[in-house]
Amino acid sequence: MTDSMKAVVLARFGGADALELRDHSVPPVEPRQVRVRVHATAVNPLDCQIRRGDYADDVPLPAIIGHDVSGVIEEVGSHVTEFRVGDAVYYTPRIFGGPGSYAEQHVADVDLVGRKPENLGHLEAASLTLVGGTAWEALVTRARLTVGETILIHGGAGGVGTVAIQIARAIGARVITTARAGDHELVRSLGADAAIDFTSTNDVDAVAEWTRGKGVDVVLDTIGGDTLTRSPLVLADFGRVVSIVDITRPQNLIEAWGRNAAYHFVFTRQNRGKLDALTALVERGLVKPVIGATLPLARMGEAHELLENGRSHELRGKIAIDVAGDTVALPPRVS
Ligand SMILES: NC(=O)c1ccc[n+]([C@@H]2O[C@H](COP(=O)([O-])OP(=O)(O)OC[C@H]3O[C@@H](n4cnc5c(N)ncnc54)[C@H](OP(=O)(O)O)[C@@H]3O)[C@@H](O)[C@H]2O)c1
After folding, report:
1. Which of 10, 84, 85, 87 is packed most tightly, with the most Cβ within 10 A?
2. Residuewise pLDDT in 10s, the chain (335 residues)
């Protein structure tokens, strides 16, 4: 067993330069854990929020952060029966529960770990675990979206949105999504029936027109701000709103009462079950990750800057991180 590895360590809270590539020890493997050779990880807005210090009380420094792993099991604990050395797996490490995925190796509780879809490479699989698990939990477990219903998915060109559109479509729902005009071709190719340019069009008016005044059955809020307050305005009676974004200020939900609306707040949990469900969709060709950029582990700071200023680089979907050097050609540095 190798007991040292390269890892990107968050040395202090701050800008992208707070992420440092260092040599780091590999944690020991407990009886119900596995040690994984990380082939790929990905970057999420949560990573940038942690780096900036938004969750300083939950993340003691120095810390290895990161919330997506795709890799191969190199060691299994004494009480692990589900997996063997050599199995390809993907998962989200426990959020705020120990070292994350910005490293060459990761040790995880076996209950979090799912078998990697056979038709995805590691970069694609790593691009799916957090956003796919969140979209699944939001639409299936919480909103209980069903065939024939209509859903408004905000942020359709983003990490969560690109997967949510595909899951909603696979369920048999009609999908309206908000995205910039330049991303409409992408969101339609993923299965959106209608796309609203959030930079120029009032979504409440557009939804009313598209649904002939009935409204949508479900809203997925990936944006925050006043989206919670505005959601009842696009909602059919007894509709559901699922928000995955922190509420930063008080919201007036008076319109929700009039619609008999139900609100769900999702802070995604980590478990194998929803990964297995996602794998079934992926292996049937119903869900495919969208990767907008790929960078090596050593350029993690650049990946964070790209996610935070993505629009200027026309970023869509996920930023994947090639940890094991599987990618032959990597893009030039973004200045
Ligand atoms: N609660 C949870 O468990 C959980 C899990 C995962 C994510 N999240 C949160 O969910 C949010 C989205 O995550 P993500 O990974 O999808 O982020 P992302 O990849 O950065 O995508 C966000 C998308 O929203 C678009 N957008 C920005 N402003 C918009 C607006 N006013 N209307 C419609 N779309 C807009 C962006 O478009 P442009 O690039 O064109 O601006 C981008 O395509 C983040 O805040 C994240 O922290 C929460």
Report:
1. 10
2. 458 999 999 999 999 999 999 999 999 999 999 999 999 999 999 999 999 999 999 999 999 999 999 999 999 999 999 999 999 999 999 999 999 999 999 999 999 999 999 999 999 999 999 999 999 999 999 999 999 999 999 999 999 999 999 999 999 999 999 999 999 999 999 999 999 999 999 999 999 999 999 999 999 999 988 888 889 999 999 999 999 998 777 888 888 998 999 999 999 999 999 999 999 999 999 999 999 999 999 999 999 999 998 765 678 899 999 999 877 566 666 54
Domains of the chain: which residue ranges?
4-128+289-322, 132-265
Within 10 A of 331 (CB to CB), how many other CB atoms are there?
13
Residue length of the chain: 335
Q: Is the CB of 178 under 6 A from ligand 1?
A: yes
CATH architecture of 132-265: 3-Layer(aba) Sandwich (3.40)
For residue 73, the CA-to-ligand 1 centroid distance in Å is 31
Token couple for 249: 């200020």
How much distance in Å is there from the Cα of 276 to the middle of ligand 1? 24
- Whole-model pTM: value is 0.96
User: Structure tokens of 283?
Assistant: 């292996």
* Superfamily classification of domain 4-128+289-322: Medium-chain alcohol dehydrogenases, catalytic domain (3.90.180.10)
CA of 34 to the centre of ligand 1 (A): 31
